[in-house]
Amino acid sequence: MAYDWQLSLREVGDEQLRAALALANIPALLACMVHHTGSTAQFDEVQPVCELFAEEVDGLTEEQRERARELALAAFAAYRGGADLAPPPEDAIAATMHRIAGQDIPGFQMPMLREELNLFGEDTRRVEINTGDMPADFRVVIIGSGMSGILTAIRLKQEGIPFTLLEKNADIGGTWYENTYPGCQVDSSNHLYNYIFEQNTQWPNHFSGRRDLFRYFAGLVDKYGLREHARLNCAVTAARYDEASGRWTLSVEEDGEAAAVTASVVVSAVGQLNIPKYPDIEGVGSFKGTCFHSARWEHGHDLTGKRVAVIGTGCSAVQFVPEIAAQCGELKIFQRSPPWLLPVEEYHAPMTDEELWLLRELPFYARWYRFFLFRTKAVDGELPLLYAEPGWQGPPNTVSEGNQMLRDALIESLQEQVGDDAEFLARLIPSYPPGGKRPVLDDGSWIAALKRPNVSLLTEPIDKIVDNGIVTRDGQLHETDVLIYGTGFTADEFLATLDVYGRDGRFLADCWDGDPRAFKGVMVAGFPNFYMLYGPNTNIVVGSSIVFFVECQLRYILGCLKLQLEEGHSAMECRADAMADYNAGIDALNSQRAWGAPAVSSWYKNASGRVTQNWPGTHWEFWQQMRGPATGELTVS
Predict the structure, then answer these.
(1) Which of 161, 181, 216, 444 reaches 20 to 30 Å from 151, CA-CA?
(2) What phi and psi, each to the nearest 5 degrees, are found at residue 414?
(3) Per-residue pLDDT reduced to its tens digit, 128-150
């Protein structure tokens, strides 16, 4: 039966409401009942239990889910009849937070989770700054207008702090502007991949594509009036700090012309995954046919009937190969190392009309749904399974008993998709422990594409690239019409697109010497009033989304600005000893993680083998350390 999904909860009939509830997330449904009843008694009848490797995300039977729907119908009756909702008692909210996933939350984590719930739009990640004594010429320059840069601009505008947004591209959006390859989409649940104060309930997919992501961020740029602060086609090539004035001068190329921009504070939001990386293979650049990197997709080329070669099987390739496989005459995929595939059934699934209606019309349901996702991924996720166990004597491609359990479960998922083809299965099983490299979300599309009769997965190493194709180490020439590099990004080369000079003219690239380090990922000793977002050791491996991490980083940075402006300091930087101690702790923890195992090689590590990308701790530990600057961390002048 067709229903009108533009009606409100008070306008729909029982049958339409039942149709919507049939697709509800039951833990979120049970949680939003507390706003109608003020009680958590519904959990006494239906209690979700969320466990790793469970077949059902909520641990409930269908009979229990149906009971929850009946309880919801009864709970919503008064509201549907016209009654107003009264805010539930805070103890009922706290109890619901515990019970939504069926596990008690440790007391120390409750403040973080209550903040993340953001139940009434509290937005406690905002830092309020008294700018009454702000110098007249005070200005912040933000480099980059992707997710991090836009967030920074919004927060500065909220506080009335002057800023300029410099963007090398012709439009805002960062990675969601630059990456246009077929199948490009987010690999975090979309209801977590948005700002906490600008939650979008109407994502068209559970994991939406780049067009919808770009539309979200562009909409916020317009909503907050950020375009008037942006200078597009303006690439920053250098930044120099003048100790006498306490100001930065940025050299830029704007519309092909050299110019200079001055700033009191610089915030780098250039990201990590934006400079295409090409493989270290003889002959790169010698191919005479159509050739491009997936991050610079050339849409003018029709692949229909063409012989296409793809080098790489990382996240980008797993997304675009299923999109192009059917149209290619022949598609050869050259694999150096297979990725671990994390099964996510809804990876390509659209949100139904019923689900979108629930998120839009059912009071507080969207907040609790988002909280459920965060609660299960950030607090009770797979991270502990990636911790190395001291003295572990298990298989060399695992680091702990839990890691071995995860490996077995992932192989079982592969076997279900592959069937009886043992040789094919062997090519899909990584030799490194789960978590050693970036995992890839998949709903079966990747292996289905590999099974196509016109697709070949080749594991023979590449010897060289020639003008008409690829030569593998066995001497075979694979002639091709189109060569696509799906080989990722130069993620370990932080701030590689600009030269940064700090106190006493010290050159940041020389200070790092190929081994980027920062204090809490956002500051470097000797570089006053210079901050980074998504800097060294702030990458998330498993959990919620990078948005959470960037929001935490920005809160720390704004805390520093608050201290600087309210106390009248001209310069602020981290202490060198604090930075050294911090990185010693980071290195120690990363050595105890799957991605830090000596035998593992990935973009998480630099050339010397040190993990420069990843945060090795929990969400709570990161949240706690980024709440604001502490005494003894900084030096001011």
Answers:
(1) 181
(2) -65, -45
(3) 999 999 999 999 999 999 999 99
Phi and psi at 562, nearest 5°, equal: -60, -45
The pLDDT tens digits for 374-388 are: 998 877 678 999 999
Block residue for tokens 């927060």: 155
| Residues in contact with 173: Cβ distance below 8 Å, sequence separation at least 6, in sequence order | 145, 146, 214, 217, 218
pLDDT at 1: 75
Pair (473, 496) in one structural domain: no
Position 380 scores a pLDDT of: 65
Does 373 have pLDDT greater than 90? Answer: yes
Residue 385: name the closest of 362, 368, 408, 369 by CA. Answer: 408
Per the structure, how many domains does the chain have? 3
pLDDT tens digits for range 492-525: 889 999 999 999 999 999 999 999 999 999 999 9
The answer to whether 457 and 427 have CB atoms below 8 angstroms apart is yes
CB-count burial class (<10 Å; 0-12, 13-18, 19+) for 194: buried
Cα-Cα-Cα-Cα dihedral sign, residues 408, 441, 197, 633: positive
pTM reported for the whole predicted model? 0.97
- Choose among 172, 182, 262, 282: nearest CA to 226: 172
Burial readout 474-491 (b: 16 or more C-beta within 10 A, e: otherwise): eeeebebbbbbbbbbbeb
- Amino acid, res. 259: A
Does residue 577 belong to any structural domain of this protein?
Answer: yes
pLDDT in tens, 521-565: 999 999 999 999 999 999 998 889 999 999 999 999 999 999 999
Provide the sign of the torsion angle of the four alpha carbons 543, 544, 548, 552, taken in this order.
negative
Count Cα atoms within 13 angstroms, Cβ side, for 109: 17
DSSP string, 136-176: TT--EEEE--SHHHHHHHHHHHHHT--EEEE-SSSSS-THH
To the nearest 5 percent, what fractions of the chain are helix, strand and coil? Answer: 35, 15, 50
Burial class of residue 87 in the structure, from the number of CB atoms within 10 Å of its CB (0-12 exposed, 13-18 middle, 19+ buried) = exposed
Whole-angstrom Cα distance, residue 315 to residue 334?
14
Report the alpha-carbon distance of residue 558 to residue 568 in Å, rounded: 15
Question: Could you list the residue range(s) of the whole structural domain that residue 77 is in?
Answer: 14-124+351-379
Pairing relationship of beta strands 307-311 and 482-485 according to DSSP bridges: parallel
Please name which of 273, 274, 266 lies closest in space to residue 152, comparing C-alpha atoms: 266
Residue 353 predicted with pLDDT over 70: yes
Q: And the tokens for 571?
A: 């310069």
Place of tokens 């515990």: 98
441 found inside a domain: yes
Same domain, 336 and 231: no
> pLDDT digit string (tens) for 16-73?
999 999 999 999 999 999 999 999 999 999 999 988 777 788 999 999 999 999 999 9
- CATH code of the domain containing 339: 3.50.50.60
Structure-token match 């103890």, residue found: 91
Residue 479 sits in the same domain as residue 495 = no
Q: How far is CA 615 from CA 213, 464, 515, in A?
A: 25, 36, 15
307 vs 302: CA distance, rounded Å: 11
